[in-house]
Write a structure and sequence with these properties.
The structure is a single chain. This protein has 154 residues and is α/β, with parallel strands linked by helices. Helix content is 31%, strand content 16%. It contains five helices and six strands. A six-stranded parallel beta sheet has the order 3-2-1-5-4-6. Helix 1 links the parallel strand 1 and strand 2. Helix 1 packs parallel to helix 2 (43-49) and helix 1 (12-25) packs parallel to helix 5 (134-149). The longest helix has 16 residues, at 134-149.
Amino acid sequence: MFNLVLLEPRMPGNVGTIGRLAFAMDCTLHLIKPYGFGDITEKEVRRAGLDYWFELDVREYENIEEFWEKNPFSPRHFFATTKTTQNYFDAEFNTGDYFYFGREDAGLPQEVLDKREESCITIPMTNDARSLNIANSVSIIAYEALRQNFKDFK
Protein backbone atom coordinates (compact mmCIF):
# COMPACT_ATOMS: atom_id res chain seq x y z
CA MET A 1 0.00 0.00 0.00
CA PHE A 2 2.55 2.60 1.23
CA ASN A 3 6.23 2.64 2.18
CA LEU A 4 7.16 3.65 5.73
CA VAL A 5 10.79 4.75 5.97
CA LEU A 6 12.56 5.05 9.34
CA LEU A 7 15.92 6.76 9.11
CA GLU A 8 18.25 5.72 11.94
CA PRO A 9 15.57 4.79 14.52
CA ARG A 10 16.71 4.86 18.13
CA MET A 11 14.02 3.04 20.11
CA PRO A 12 13.23 -0.62 19.44
CA GLY A 13 9.73 -0.33 20.92
CA ASN A 14 8.83 2.36 18.39
CA VAL A 15 10.14 0.22 15.54
CA GLY A 16 8.07 -2.72 16.73
CA THR A 17 4.93 -0.61 17.08
CA ILE A 18 5.42 0.88 13.62
CA GLY A 19 6.05 -2.62 12.25
CA ARG A 20 2.73 -3.77 13.67
CA LEU A 21 1.01 -0.79 12.00
CA ALA A 22 2.81 -1.53 8.72
CA PHE A 23 1.56 -5.12 8.82
CA ALA A 24 -2.02 -4.03 9.59
CA MET A 25 -1.98 -1.61 6.64
CA ASP A 26 -0.08 -3.89 4.24
CA CYS A 27 2.79 -1.39 4.03
CA THR A 28 6.47 -2.05 3.52
CA LEU A 29 8.71 -0.96 6.40
CA HIS A 30 12.13 0.33 5.34
CA LEU A 31 14.75 0.59 8.12
CA ILE A 32 17.89 2.59 7.46
CA LYS A 33 20.93 2.05 9.71
CA PRO A 34 22.60 2.82 11.98
CA TYR A 35 20.08 1.96 14.66
CA GLY A 36 20.23 3.22 18.23
CA PHE A 37 19.90 -0.39 19.40
CA GLY A 38 21.16 -3.81 18.33
CA ASP A 39 19.47 -6.10 15.86
CA ILE A 40 15.85 -5.57 14.82
CA THR A 41 15.07 -9.02 16.18
CA GLU A 42 15.74 -7.83 19.74
CA LYS A 43 13.03 -8.78 22.19
CA GLU A 44 11.85 -5.15 22.55
CA VAL A 45 11.11 -4.98 18.82
CA ARG A 46 9.40 -8.37 18.83
CA ARG A 47 7.36 -7.55 21.93
CA ALA A 48 5.93 -4.34 20.42
CA GLY A 49 5.47 -5.96 16.99
CA LEU A 50 3.88 -9.06 18.52
CA ASP A 51 3.59 -12.10 16.29
CA TYR A 52 3.12 -9.88 13.23
CA TRP A 53 6.80 -9.03 13.00
CA PHE A 54 7.81 -12.17 11.11
CA GLU A 55 5.05 -11.71 8.51
CA LEU A 56 5.94 -8.05 7.90
CA ASP A 57 7.59 -6.89 4.68
CA VAL A 58 10.60 -5.24 6.32
CA ARG A 59 13.74 -4.22 4.46
CA GLU A 60 17.03 -3.02 5.93
CA TYR A 61 19.62 -0.70 4.41
CA GLU A 62 23.11 0.21 5.56
CA ASN A 63 22.59 3.91 4.79
CA ILE A 64 20.35 6.39 2.95
CA GLU A 65 22.42 6.09 -0.24
CA GLU A 66 21.73 2.34 -0.44
CA PHE A 67 18.05 3.04 0.19
CA TRP A 68 17.91 5.58 -2.68
CA GLU A 69 19.83 3.22 -4.94
CA LYS A 70 17.12 0.59 -4.44
CA ASN A 71 14.19 3.05 -4.16
CA PRO A 72 14.98 5.95 -6.50
CA PHE A 73 14.01 9.36 -5.19
CA SER A 74 10.89 10.92 -6.74
CA PRO A 75 8.20 13.49 -5.92
CA ARG A 76 6.26 10.61 -4.27
CA HIS A 77 8.68 10.67 -1.31
CA PHE A 78 7.34 12.72 1.63
CA PHE A 79 9.35 13.91 4.64
CA ALA A 80 7.66 14.26 8.04
CA THR A 81 9.23 17.19 9.86
CA THR A 82 8.49 20.00 12.27
CA LYS A 83 10.59 22.27 10.01
CA THR A 84 7.85 23.13 7.51
CA THR A 85 4.45 24.80 7.48
CA GLN A 86 2.85 22.44 4.93
CA ASN A 87 0.33 20.34 6.84
CA TYR A 88 0.05 16.64 6.04
CA PHE A 89 -3.69 16.95 5.40
CA ASP A 90 -3.02 19.40 2.55
CA ALA A 91 -0.83 16.91 0.69
CA GLU A 92 -2.24 14.50 -1.89
CA PHE A 93 -1.06 10.94 -1.35
CA ASN A 94 -1.12 7.95 -3.69
CA THR A 95 -0.65 4.26 -3.10
CA GLY A 96 3.02 3.39 -3.27
CA ASP A 97 4.14 6.69 -1.73
CA TYR A 98 7.12 6.81 0.63
CA PHE A 99 6.80 8.47 4.05
CA TYR A 100 10.08 9.26 5.84
CA PHE A 101 10.49 9.69 9.58
CA GLY A 102 13.74 10.62 11.28
CA ARG A 103 15.45 9.77 14.52
CA GLU A 104 13.36 10.21 17.65
CA ASP A 105 15.93 12.61 19.11
CA ALA A 106 16.75 14.66 16.01
CA GLY A 107 14.23 14.16 13.20
CA LEU A 108 15.29 14.00 9.57
CA PRO A 109 18.63 15.62 8.68
CA GLN A 110 18.46 18.92 6.80
CA GLU A 111 20.22 17.44 3.76
CA VAL A 112 17.33 14.99 3.36
CA LEU A 113 14.71 17.73 3.76
CA ASP A 114 16.58 19.84 1.20
CA LYS A 115 16.13 17.16 -1.49
CA ARG A 116 12.60 18.44 -2.12
CA GLU A 117 11.11 21.18 0.05
CA GLU A 118 7.64 20.66 -1.51
CA SER A 119 7.62 17.12 -0.10
CA CYS A 120 8.05 18.22 3.52
CA ILE A 121 4.92 17.76 5.61
CA THR A 122 4.13 18.41 9.24
CA ILE A 123 1.51 17.43 11.79
CA PRO A 124 0.18 20.65 13.30
CA MET A 125 0.13 21.07 17.06
CA THR A 126 -1.90 23.67 18.90
CA ASN A 127 0.69 24.49 21.54
CA ASP A 128 4.47 24.61 21.88
CA ALA A 129 5.15 20.86 21.96
CA ARG A 130 8.39 20.01 20.11
CA SER A 131 7.00 16.92 18.41
CA LEU A 132 4.88 13.80 18.74
CA ASN A 133 6.04 10.25 19.36
CA ILE A 134 7.28 8.78 16.08
CA ALA A 135 4.86 5.83 16.19
CA ASN A 136 1.96 8.26 16.61
CA SER A 137 3.26 10.41 13.75
CA VAL A 138 3.57 7.42 11.42
CA SER A 139 0.01 6.36 12.30
CA ILE A 140 -1.45 9.80 11.65
CA ILE A 141 0.16 10.23 8.23
CA ALA A 142 -0.31 6.62 7.10
CA TYR A 143 -4.02 6.65 7.95
CA GLU A 144 -4.52 9.99 6.20
CA ALA A 145 -2.95 8.43 3.11
CA LEU A 146 -5.28 5.44 3.50
CA ARG A 147 -8.29 7.75 3.93
CA GLN A 148 -7.42 9.52 0.69
CA ASN A 149 -7.06 6.23 -1.20
CA PHE A 150 -9.58 4.02 0.60
CA LYS A 151 -11.88 3.68 -2.41
CA ASP A 152 -9.07 1.77 -4.13
CA PHE A 153 -9.20 -0.93 -1.44
CA LYS A 154 -12.92 -1.62 -1.12
